[in-house]
Amino acid sequence: MSEIRSGRVVRVNRFSVPEEARPEFMELLERTHRVMREQPGFIDDMILEQQAGAGILSLITIIRFEGEHVLQPIIAAVAKSDREAGIDRQALSRDLGVESHVGFYAPITFRELLPA
């Protein structure tokens, strides 16, 4: 059975981060991923970094989940953790000058792309 038929979901986040905001943003990112890693349905994650221009870093996070059914409980767990810590992640990102783009993807294999 392929991953797309088994319902796996991949979330890809792309962040544009001013270099001076990196330490504080990385703390938030680490905290978020720590919470997600403890949740049922989390498979694995990867964080990538690239110099994107003068004073700007591009961070990409790739997170794999067992399926759409685990997304809402994981999102709720992260929100609960934020509330308990007094974190307003949208305000913090805005204050740090971080821009983000988020997307959910379904993995495919090349075999699925070939005609039958």
Describe it for me?
- The chain has about 120 residues and is α+β, with helices and mostly antiparallel strands.
- The chain is built from five helices and four strands.
- The chain has a four-stranded antiparallel β-sheet, covered by helices on one side.
- About 10% of the residues are buried.
- Mean pLDDT is about 90; it is low at about 1-5.
Number of strands: 4
Q: Provide the succession of SSEs.
A: HEHEEHHEH
- Poorly predicted ranges (pLDDT <50, ≥5 residues)? 1-5
Considering DSSP H and I runs of 4 or more, what fraction of the residues is helical?
A: 40-55%
**Radius of gyration, taken over Cα atoms and rounded to an integer in Å:** 16 Å
Outline: flat
The portion of residues forming beta strands comes to 25-35%
- Number of continuous helical runs: 5
Mean pLDDT: 91
Tell me the structural class: alpha+beta
Strand order of the largest sheet: 2-3-1-4
**Intertermini distance:** 16 Å
Biggest sheet architecture: 4 strands, antiparallel
Structure in a nutshell:
The protein is of the alpha+beta class. It has helices at residues 3-6, 22-37, 71-85, 89-96, 110-113, and strands at 9-18, 42-53, 56-65, 99-105.
Question: What are the defining features of this structure?
Answer:
single chain, 116 residues, alpha+beta, 4-stranded antiparallel beta sheet, 5 helices, disordered N terminus
